[in-house]
């Protein structure tokens, strides 16, 4: 499922929930937290780039891992909203980047497979945008109602950070599991192919040896030879 389809489904789900309240002003970019986990196919010799909006003051996190294809590595780079290369290209099997955006804007994530001329890559991409400042806004709104919820808000912020760390850990675990499974399947196919090839070679070699051995003992009697008693 593509990135845009996932965002569309997420938007429809939240519209159904929040529709009776703030349907007109709803936007997934205004949510306190957005997380996306999807797989992309990068053709050989190609580069794909993706953009993600990050609110001012929000924490942007992105990670990638090559699941299968070629040498299991790809290039990974990140540009900030100003167009600066904040994470330069590195040919690695996995990598990640985190930044707290000050002014906000669109971050660009690029996955490069140009060094691989013949092998396509399957890459797992994980992106989150967390707005921790939203909890402070909730605190101010509640304080206007003369409610003391500072400890409660701090606890919620702490839980939110822990949940985000857990999601990142789960993402790495799923990525490693998928990578190991693909590696196991590739090794199984490799072993089966070479086993069949070896069986064919041994069979052909045996048949050739039998043929030449039989030819060696296949002596035809001469017409001039006489049998002596």
Automatic annotation (TrEMBL):
UniProt cross-references to PROSITE patterns, sorted A to Z: GOLD (PS50866)
Gene Ontology CC annotation, any one: endomembrane system
Protein family (similarity comment): Belongs to the EMP24/GP25L family.
Membrane-topology annotation of the record: Single-pass membrane protein; Single-pass type I membrane protein
Presence of the UniProt keyword Membrane in the record: yes
Domain GOLD: 47-129
Signal peptide range in chain numbering: 1-23
Entry's localization field: Endomembrane system; Membrane
Primary localization class, coarse: membrane
Keyword terms: Coiled coil, Developmental protein, Membrane, Signal, Transmembrane, Transmembrane helix
Protein name, per record: GOLD domain-containing protein
Coiled coil (UniProt feature): 135-162
Domain of life: Eukaryota
